[in-house]
User: Fold this.
Amino acid sequence: MVPQVVRSAVIQAPAAKIFALITQAERNSEWVPDLERSERLTPGETRIGTRFRFVSRIGPIPVDVTDEVVQLVPDRHIAFRGVSGPSHAGSWSFQPEPAADGSEGATNVTYRMEFELPPGVGPIVSRMIDLPRRLDDQAQACLSNLRRILE
Assistant:
């Protein structure tokens, strides 16, 4: 079973500005709901191979994961996969939407996340905590919070 979510929103900010915030994953706790801690494990700029650690909560359950950047196209796309914690992968994509005067005024931001749950118990736990709805709610809240911070 692979619960996944794909959500998009238009944010009234240039792609470069949004990308810059998202690639500073140590700042994710500023805009990701239920995230208690986010820290950079790899020094320097965000690049392929950079790792971050996140501690969040799904209800009363703490979830500790380490993510690694696996794809990076500056100002356009960043993808990651979990290297510890629940098996997961996700990405952020940024499509500039030029303003009437030709300047980069807004960006269509698409967030994707999926979890691979263990057979047998995974589907049961997913139903118990309503994981698909939680993922969707979190994705919507992330995009809304980014809009609030960046617009």
Notes: The chain has a mean pLDDT of 86. The chain is about 25% helix and 45% strand. The chain has one domain: 4-150. Helices lie at 15-22, 121-129, 131-150.
